Amino acid sequence: MNLSTFAKDALREVGNIGSSHSAGSLSELLSSKVEITPPVIDVIAGTEVAERIGEEEMIVSAYHFGDDITGTLLFFYPLTGAREVGKRIGGVNTLMELDNLLQKVSRKMADSFARAISDFFAVDVKVSSPRLDESRIGSIPELLSALGMGNNGALFFSTTLQDSGRTYCHLFFYLNEEDVGRIMNVELQTFEDEPLNFSEIIGSFEKVFEVEERLNDYLEAISVPPKAVREFLRSSGSGFSENRLRRLLEQVLIRAGIGEEVFFEVKAPLTYLLRVERCNVCRMVQGGACHTTSTAVGRFFMENLKIGVTVREVECRNSGGGACVHEVCLEQIDAFSVLPTASDIVILNLLEKAPMELQELIEKSELPEKEVKESLEILEYYGIVERGGARVEITSLGEVFLTFARNAYPGKEEYDDSWDDIAEIERRIELRKQSMPEEKAPWEM
Predict the structure, then answer these.
(1) Beta-carbon neighbour count of residue 121 at 10 Å?
(2) I need a labelling partner for 252 at 20 to 30 A (CA). Which of 124, 181, 300, 441 fits?
């Protein structure tokens, strides 16, 4: 099968959309976060599939896609990951019961994968279980052969669903030439109501990848000091509009090409809304959701701020929304590890002993009145203290927070006041590019 590198990249994006939804389904079943490894799409032989997933004994599920888009989805569960899934969901005592449970889990993930692709292309995609003579299958290559996959190599999209280093399953999406042809010939209804053949708009992915490359450049060049992260978390009230970290994030997304106007706003404690007006991602990939934006924002918080985050699109221009809106939810433990100041700890140490009147707290803390009031405002906002009139008391969450803060509060922190200088950031990006050997983009090879 002869496919250009860029066409493979486009198909990888399609597979990434489906696998992300599969991971979401597994996450709901396990009631915990499930991540996917960077997806790979390549022509590989059946023996190579076995090599890539390892030699551990596996439980396997297979599903066919039908109607307007076709393909075969495979789930390979290493026994250690399979048993963890069975333990989390419960009601499993034997290997046969575990196998039956995983077939149901796989079906739910396959349905989610198919539904995501169906929504992306606005076509029918149905899932069915293939008929297999299990008595004649003793290895992965034999399984692939029974599913109609040749030994000379086939096109596979693959990724791994995992959590904290534990592998739950390996997901493989097999596409033969007919499958690829069906995808390439699907007509997409654009936002301007002009249907385009998918193969005709693959060029749009080039623009998306260019945006992603620029975003990657920014994320690698930005270094945010902990003090700036703390100021961001503590400016969720009236000062948020002037916060430097918020403005830097908006500026980076605009300059990378995500949208013409970007607004980052507070929704609730540790929850924010990112609003993208005239989203360029939607313009470039008609019918698709803004995964590029969600991924970039997620990386910014996790990699640059060291705070776990969940980002989901709650409104999209391609679905009739006025703008593309993403909800950003920060992990409480990660955020609270950066949030506290020395004043917070002094105040909470006093409140841990007993509730106090505000004036008494000011006197015993020996802190300036303005500093105490500002600290209490933040602590109350995050549910760490409660106030009734002039009376202040620590909450149960505050007691946990205090224990954590005592251990997590840092000593002296280095602080570069020019950390958000966009011109300096872009200068570093340019210097790094100049030091690297020139490479052609995949679509130019």
Answers:
(1) 21
(2) 441
